[in-house]
Amino acid sequence: MNKIQNIMLGAFTSTALLTAASMPATAATECGTKDKITIAEMTWLSASSLAHIAKKVLADGYGCNIEIVPGDTVPTATSMLTKGKPHIAPELWVSTAKTIWDKMIKKGNVYKANDIFAGGGEEGWWIPDYVAKAHPGIKSIGDLKANAKIFADISDPEKGRLYGCPPGWGCEIITNNLFKALGLGESFELFSPGSGANLKASFARQVTRKKPIVGYYWGPTDVIGKYNLVRLNMPAHDAAKFKCLTDKDCVNPEVTGWAVGEVAVAVVSELKNKAPNVADFLSKLQVPNAEISTVLAWGDDNKASPEEVASHFLKTYESIWTKWVPEDVAAKIKASL
Q1: Per residue in 131-144, pLDDT tens?
Q2: What CATH number should be reported for the domain whose range is 122-245?
Q3: CA distance 70 to 223
Q4: 37-120+261-336: CATH class
Q5: If you write DSSP's letter for every residue of 17-32 in order, what string do you get?
Q6: pLDDT in tens, 175-228
Q7: Is 172 exposed, middle or buried (0-12, 13-18, 19+ CB in 10 A)?
Q8: Spatial separation of the C-alpha atoms in residues 315 and 10, rounded to whole Å
Q9: Where are the domains of the chain?
């Protein structure tokens, strides 16, 4: 009896081993396409860092052929609408490019994979806390006209200086229209900082010297927390009025407030079919506001490049980004770090 049992057991074991050998191993999670995938790198630190985070995940984790391309809100949105490239914009401020975004959605060639910031974006005109304390009458954007000289620059002591939005950003059109709607032309100079870096440097310079400054800024970012900026009150958000503010050809701009910023992971629709694994990752790509602000402050304090900020995030916040990807992808990314 034992001999028969041993023969049967041996036959069963051999069959099991043959069956196991013939079964395919669990397939690695791959990119799904050999075509080059382009990612827009905007000119401010959060967006440029997020572009490099996405690149690192897709290149090292999925084996995708990734190229980072320069961008800014309006030019990138326009290019995605008309040319279908870049393929991914990890931080596209939909709320400041509403007119173009609506055209994208109607055309159907671009979609929102996710909201990149868990708490949404925040935009407006800001002053330092010490200015708010010294001038309690300045609480809203409507108070600026009567207090213009407080913000005067040495180049023109008779006019206040309002630091506008950098050229090419969607907020440039909104700020220009809002400036016009408030009738600030006679009492203020709308000063173009030239770039996001210059805008940041302007706030840093004035705050370091405890001088008054008023201008556009957004969050999440290290600047608002680092320099204790206070957002000026605005009227309640009116969608119709705000949509006109986002249009450079708005004939009769009216004063209204920014809504909580809709900031999208914008993706060209063809990528969803071409690379479903990539689309799945992008649908989960989201960062908490507080944590990303902390990362950006680290980047600013250490004068880090966007690539270095991306690596710092991936090394420091494993609990966040490992939820975006399968385990085998996460393992490859960790190995690359």
Answers
A1: 999 999 999 999 99
A2: 3.40.190.100
A3: 23
A4: alpha beta
A5: HHHHHHSPPPPP---S
A6: 999 999 999 999 999 999 999 999 999 999 999 999 999 999 988 888 988 888
A7: buried
A8: 49
A9: 37-120+261-336, 122-245
